[in-house]
Amino acid sequence: MTSPLLPTFARAELSFEKGEGPWLYGRDGERYLDFGAGIAVNALGHAHPHLVKALTEQASKIWHSSNLFQIPEGERLAQRLVDSTFADFVFFTNSGAEANEAAIKMARRYHYVNGNPERFHIVTFEGAFHGRTLGTIAAGGQAKYLEGFGPKVQGFDQVPPEDLEALKAVIGPHTAALMIEPIQGEGGVRSVSNAFLRELRALCDSQGLLLIFDEIQTGVGRTGKLFAYEWSGVTPDIMTVAKGIGGGFPLGACLATAEAGKGLTLGTHGTTFGGNPLAMAVGNAVLDVILEPGFLESVERKGLLLKQRLAELKDRHPSVIAEVRGQGLIMGLRTVVPNTDFVSAARDQKLIVIGAGDNVVRLLPPLIITEADLGEAINRLDDACAAIEAKQKTAVPPGAVQ
């Protein structure tokens, strides 16, 4: 059977008809424990009653009015984000890529209004992923995403993470900003040290650059803080958010200080659907839960438990798992076997996990996951590892007579 969809995704032979909390129910009749959360999107799991109520109530009122008019729920969500972060202003989008495009434009425009239009280059870091638009694939700089789409959009330089000297070498009179993910998600759950983030802040301050944090995958409680930058002791000038902020509804945001955002004035940027009433209702509902007293502390506690149990799993299965990475409820297993084999083995155990770069498997459970369900996931990962080991034992060694 052929599909009318463009073949841009390697879709698994699996589809789901409903979800509840951390569980998905497949059309094959099986129940799956979801440790992918729609790639860190379903922060509060599936069919969370507070989100369902907010969406259905708003859907019975008004879906879309456009940004030609005031949207009170958007004003409220923006104020709550400002009150909870470093930011003074928020621009709402529909996706992470759009939020990053807004951040790129904001940084360039900042220097333009300061009388320095030549400062438009943004330095990013090898292994980064910032989206799929022409601008954001250029920002990420990965050849596999750039191939075949014509000349790379100019204005981006890439350097290795944690290499301060390489970074200093590319900064020049054309440089506008530095852009980094505190933890590279697509790049293999590779954490950037807090010390390096502090060095970036000091470098930006001394060179008149803006510091942009891409928290699309790490934000909204994923690491045990509302945003991952809070662990570092420094704040960015601009921050991009998406995925978890909508709890499954398309929503992104670009947050900024008043100084960094001063160039985006009337008519300089816009969006048709960004900040629509449906998205704003759900975004506020997500924050209702995330900001409840004790919620983030519970994420941090469960993250520590998960990391401990994964370390034990690695010790039991050294021929399958090479390294445990991550923080909070964004964890990665760098595997000895191809990560696609591990994803498949986990799915055979009715556990959903997500592949990433550097031969890593991501574990991104919803933040409402219970400790009992964490234990169940470890048992299923254990069984997946055992199945892989059994295949390793029966594999014919190279050069052996068959």
From TrEMBL:
Q: Which UniProt keywords apply?
A: Amino-acid biosynthesis, Aminotransferase, Arginine biosynthesis, Cytoplasm, Pyridoxal phosphate, Transferase
Write out the GO MF terms. identical protein binding; N2-acetyl-L-ornithine:2-oxoglutarate 5-aminotransferase activity; pyridoxal phosphate binding
Q: Which pathway does it operate in?
A: Amino-acid biosynthesis; L-arginine biosynthesis; N(2)-acetyl-L-ornithine from L-glutamate: step 4/4
Q: What is its main location?
A: cytoplasm
Q: Which PROSITE patterns match?
A: AA_TRANSFER_CLASS_3
Extract one GO BP annotation from the record: L-arginine biosynthetic process
Cellular location(s): Cytoplasm
- What are the required cofactors? pyridoxal 5'-phosphate
> Cofactor stoichiometry and binding?
Binds 1 pyridoxal phosphate per subunit.
Which residues are modified to N6-(pyridoxal phosphate)lysine?
K243
Known EC number: 2.6.1.11
More info: May also have succinyldiaminopimelate aminotransferase activity, thus carrying out the corresponding step in lysine biosynthesis.
Quaternary state and interactors: Homodimer.
Which family does this protein fall into? Answer: Belongs to the class-III pyridoxal-phosphate-dependent aminotransferase family. ArgD subfamily.
Which NCBIfam families does the entry mention?
Answer: argD, PRK01278.1
Q: What is this protein called?
A: Acetylornithine aminotransferase
Origin organism of this chain?
Microvirga tunisiensis
Q: Which gene encodes it?
A: argD
